[in-house]
Design goal:
Elements lengths: L3 E6 L6 H17 L3 E6 L4 H8 L3 E4 L10 H9 L8 H8 L1 H10 L7 E5 H4 L9 E5 L9 E3 L20 E6 L4 E8 L2 E10 L7 H5 L4 E4 L6 H18 L4 E9 L7 E8 L9 H8 L4 H11 L5
Length: 307
């Protein structure tokens, strides 16, 4: 049966451009499968706008703070409007890298050693032996990520900047060398593992993710089957431990320099994975036999409020 679907996009986080691209692709797909669509560029009046529009379902294509940290999810719960992706608690938990790491580790998922502190305390001298990575504790799309190599005599001085836009709390995490792997979970099924090969970039940064030709997606990843199974098992374990629903995507580093067993480290779970033309989940789903329209249609049908 055809539904009226409000596609929430844009918003006011640093990931607004990505969200607009995801939202357009999803809205087009939802229309193509026969649903009525209202495209809503989200502002502070989103609750009022949704009450006026009165859709049957909200398709959440927002990214970053407000869109995937439990905030918009709380508004949708208050309105009793079924919505896609994870709920309030899972969204808030997964968005906070430190808390997500604690939960994942408790579920048996391998994580890297890390410290959380104020950015000004991470700036004067190394708080961990290089190489390490500095990440904002609650940002996405690799915004604010700094890699500190072995040859750096001191941490990046950008941390002192008065216009640093990513919050004062950062995570300093041991750098894990190796290959970028990711795995999508759809409902309670872990799909194929994908290897991300950045083109001309040192790591999978913003341009690698969203610029055309920024990276290649190899699905299924050319890795030993037993490693692929471990990635799938850990992805599903993280999805369940956080209480995610719908579609999520877990990211890993796999260091196979000293043998195919290698070191496999979970980095994070994304409860609002990108749905742009260059995004990972559509490629992973396609390899499993799900067209983009099938994937988006499944997500619309899966939408719910807390039970």
């Amino acid at each position: 049966m055809a539904k009226h679907v409000a596609v929430l996009m844009g918003g006011f986080s640093s990931e607004r451009p990505v969200s607009l691209s995801s939202g357009k692709a999803c809205a087009d797909a939802i229309e193509a499968i026969g649903h009525r669509v209202t495209r809503l560029d989200v502002g502070r009046d989103v609750a009022q706008r949704l009450a006026e529009i009165a859709p049957d379902v909200a398709f959440n294509a927002l990214h970053g703070p407000f869109g995937e940290d439990g905030t918009i999810q709380g508004i949708l719960e208050y309105l009793r409007l079924p919505y896609t992706h994870s709920g309030v608690l899972a969204s808030a938990l997964a968005m906070h890298k430190e808390r997500a790491k604690i939960v994942a580790k408790a579920a048996g998922v391998p994580v890297a050693e890390a410290k959380v502190l104020h950015r000004l305390d991470a700036a004067p001298a190394h708080v961990m032996t290089p190489p390490y990575v500095i990440k904002p504790v609650a940002e996405g799309s690799s915004f604010g990520v700094l890699i500190v190599r072995e040859d750096r005599s001191k941490p990046p001085q950008e941390l002192y900047s008065s216009d640093w836009p990513y919050g004062d709390t950062v995570m300093v995490e041991r750098y894990v060398a190796g290959r970028e792997l990711t795995c999508a979970v759809m409902g309670d099924v872990a799909l194929d593992v994908c290897e991300i090969v950045p083109e001309g970039h040192a790591f999978y940064d913003y341009d690698s993710k969203y610029a055309p030709g920024g990276s290649r997606h190899v699905v299924p990843a050319d890795i030993p089957k037993k490693v692929a199974r471990r990635v799938q098992e850990h992805s599903l374990a993280a999805h369940k431990a956080m209480g995610c629903r719908g579609v999520s995507r877990s990211d890993f580093r796999y260091d196979d320099r000293f043998g195919e067993g290698g070191e496999l480290i979970w980095l994070e779970v994304n409860t609002q994975p990108g749905m742009t033309p260059t995004s990972l989940v559509p490629d992973i789903a396609r390899a499993a036999g799900h067209s983009f329209e099938d994937l988006i249609g499944w997500m619309v049908e899966d939408a719910s409020c807390a039970r």
